[in-house]
């Protein structure tokens, strides 16, 4: 219970109410002390007036008057004459004087607390103004022990009452919080648990109905989140099904196209001029179709495995990429260069980094070849304070605006006619696995530059 919201509110309420009552306790006890002393002055005044009315009272009656007034002596000043009206023997000397005529609240509270602290009995003198203007001044001497006992009794009553009030208040607040706050929160938590069991089920999405504004806002936010998540899961499921179908079709189609590619080699040997003229176009079309099928199959497989991080020489790896591309360039006028320090060691998965750099270089080569003009591709790398930076730059025609909008999205970011857009999507996925990034640094009529950043330190 103490770990629950309502239980903690219960404890806090009791503490705060008790704190408030303590703050009230001091002035209340001070007020009680003042009323107590004023009552003694009033009794003493009544007793002195009785004596003045009949000057022949016996000593026994005077003692009874003093006992009823709970004082030792009574001094009354009338007509500028100070007169000891009633008197008895004092048990000890007067130790303190208290004038109630011009006291402040702070003085009353200070004197009250001091009286509670002092345990021993004392004889004190109390001075005040007579009621109903029956004189100029009245002072009495009295024992402080009954005063302190009365103050303690009064204080205990206040504390007991405060405790009862705080407990009742806390219980009421506890029940109110349980009904108005805790129960709706538990309802939201229950909705979340039921939704987590089957997030694809739209019937498990929460229906906002809380009356408390803050809870209603939380339910609205949860409703929006669950709705978007359910739609995303349904879309993901449809895409997964579609991807499976496309993968199967691409697999069979690749086999068919591979066979067709073998026949095109013989078609090129034909003596028919029309066939010799159309054969290269047929070969290029089949080659693009095979490439698309292979890319689709590669992307449709399971997610990329987590990279196995090792230190490797980036210059050596880049040379392998460029050598493979030189074979693919053939007779086209495309030059390849690299500017990487020979001793630059990079931490990453060599196989995945090879694929990422190879995809970027291949895209650059295909873009330049498509223009039919000469071009250059350059791969450079450098070490910065926290990252290794790899750049792949070309002198191709640049990316069209449509390709820039969805550059790293599969099947939508293709910059080349007939391209699938999978190459850059794969590069982005590989870099995310390394905790790095790939971005388009520049693209215009003079060419395109992609930048890869690999963190030197592991994430976190």
From TrEMBL:
PROSITE patterns: HIS_KIN. Residues 248-458 form the Histidine kinase domain. Keywords: ATP-binding, Kinase, Membrane, Nucleotide-binding, Phosphoprotein, Transferase, Transmembrane, Transmembrane helix, Two-component regulatory system. SMART domains: HATPase_c, HisKA. It catalyses: ATP + protein L-histidine = ADP + protein N-phospho-L-histidine. The chain crosses the membrane at residues 6-30, 158-181. Its EC number is 2.7.13.3. GO terms for molecular function: kinase activity. It is an enzyme of class 2 (transferase). This is histidine kinase. It comes from Ponticoccus alexandrii.
